[in-house]
Specification:
By secondary structure, the protein is an alpha/beta fold. It has 6 helices and 9 strands. Bound molecules: S-adenosyl-L-homocysteine.
Length: 224
């Protein structure tokens, strides 16, 4: 498999062709080796047009959905970004190319460790993976210019709203059930106002509250 060529094809046929125009997002998706974020046994399917299973009963998201979320988050090179639901670390790697720094929270320790290793190997030194409950956000490093949530629940966790900078964007799947989820873009207008845009139907794994411990490893991560 020529992975670099497969990635170009993935971007052309699944992402650009469906209307994602943000050239920085397209370029990041061409360059981040998605094949290294899927389980070895599924590597031949790394560029397929759907989500794939990873460890701990979780998934790596469909490439197009990742692109849609990143484009909606309108990330600039100087931005501080929070990601909730790191999973494989694939979106984290993309974010590390788009933003100045990324904090990524994952509640499954085994996934957090594996993602951290991959990101280190790829040299994504502006990304930090912490193990903990992402519904609490990361107050120590807030506010964030963008927050990306890759797991869905019935309502927007309050701390995530509050940890958005004024003008910041939160992209999150919300719905009473997986079948009724909508991808929402929430933009913080000022201290007390948030605007919501519905980006359409999606299906994410559940956003589970209440991981046992407070995110670790935050303290060493400077604000830059
Ligand atoms: N962007 C990831 C998506 C992984 S699936 C990828 O493409 O690989 C969503 C992830 O959210 C799962 O790994 C799940 O364990 C995690 N998750 C669910 N609830 C969470 C919470 N409260 N805090 C942090 N992570 C959570």
């Amino acid at each position: 498999m020529d992975a670099a060529r497969e990635r170009l094809r993935m971007v052309e046929t699944q992402i650009a062709s469906r209307g994602v125009r943000d050239e920085r997002v397209l370029q990041a998706m061409r360059s981040v080796p998605r094949e290294q974020f899927v389980p070895a046994a599924l590597r031949a399917q790394a560029f397929d047009d759907h989500a794939l299973p990873i460890d701990a009963g979780q998934t790596i998201s469909q490439p197009f959905v990742v692109a849609l979320m990143l484009e909606a988050a309108a990330i600039s090179p100087g931005d501080a970004v929070l990601e909730v639901g790191t999973g494989s670390g694939y979106a984290t790697a993309l974010l590390s190319q788009l933003a100045a720094r990324v904090v990524a929270i994952e509640r499954h320790e085994s996934l957090a460790l594996a993602a951290r290793e991959r990101l280190e190997r790829l040299g994504a030194s502006n990304a930090r993976v912490v193990h903990g409950d992402g519904t609490l956000g990361c107050p120590e490093l807030a506010p964030f210019d963008a927050i990306i949530v890759s797991a869905g629940g019935p309502e927007i966790p309050g701390p995530l709203r509050e940890q958005l900078a004024i003008g910041g964007r939160l992209v999150i799947p919300i719905g009473e059930s997986r079948e009724r989820q909508r991808l929402l873009l929430i933009r913080r207008v000022d201290e007390r106002r948030w605007n919501t845009t519905d980006l359409g139907p999606v299906q994410f794994v559940p956003l589970l509250p209440g991981a046992a411990e407070r995110p670790r490893g935050v303290d060493e991560f400077g604000r830059g």
